[in-house]
């Protein structure tokens, strides 16, 4: 194996040396550019691995529940709960080690009543996996989530959706979930925001009003949610944006490649609840919710996002965030007394 690696390396260096005269520069390029590049594009596969590890683990719990219950000698234990606890512990450990994940504003999250979490969608919604895991471990409450329909065509996803209460979500089904006293998370931007958002953190909701109609029907409070440095942990490649937009519009499948950076600090912020008032329309509710999330972004996120700054945030906890936004946006959301 080692001889094969050395042969490959020699071939690669020989190939580079044809175009680069300085051998030292060639070695530097190989060690300081190529390796980090490989790592950044492999990181999203760690995320995929965790999803399939979760799927396999849930199947193990499902098919061998009788044996597991016998071993722990607790016939009344619900094996799904044991399985979800295990999966949540795995994701929480990953969140802590890789991203020093934490949540701010937990006082805004209902502890024993319903609530509609509306969140900004990153290139990968890894913050939602972390958030669901930490809330389940801390409060023993499972947050229902709405996922894009293409997910349900992926092998292994069905059991995850079954155990973790992920569904495509209709206005009626989401309303029923909230009326039953549950917490429900929706990203209005969805896959489109994930694929075509960038490190300027602009909301790409495309006039979607479904969540607002759900809030009106269920009378559930809306809790705005945003995760700091989310676009620094995982980003879409910058090339071919128009091509990938056309592909998405044709297929509704996310094709745009993603790369990741380890050790970026991720911190989820929850804002004060937004209540539906008499006379509110879906459009008005959407605008109030968007403004609340924009406020969380402006107050907690450096704009444009910085990968180096995101990594340093893990070292310097008491840092002053350098918010670089245009004066009009800052004035609108930082000095808006109505918010």
TrEMBL record:
<keyword id="KW-1133">Transmembrane helix</keyword>
<feature type="domain" description="Phospholipid/glycerol acyltransferase">
    <location>
        <begin position="104"/>
        <end position="225"/>
    </location>
</feature>
<dbReference type="Pfam" id="PF01553">
    <property type="entry name" value="Acyltransferase"/>
</dbReference>
<keyword id="KW-0812">Transmembrane</keyword>
<dbReference type="GO" id="GO:0016746">
    <property type="term" value="F:acyltransferase activity"/>
</dbReference>
<dbReference type="InterPro" id="IPR002123">
    <property type="entry name" value="Plipid/glycerol_acylTrfase"/>
</dbReference>
<dbReference type="GO" id="GO:0016020">
    <property type="term" value="C:membrane"/>
</dbReference>
<keyword id="KW-0472">Membrane</keyword>
<feature type="transmembrane region" description="Helical">
    <location>
        <begin position="33"/>
        <end position="61"/>
    </location>
</feature>
<protein>
    <recommendedName>
        <fullName>Phospholipid/glycerol acyltransferase domain-containing protein</fullName>
    </recommendedName>
</protein>
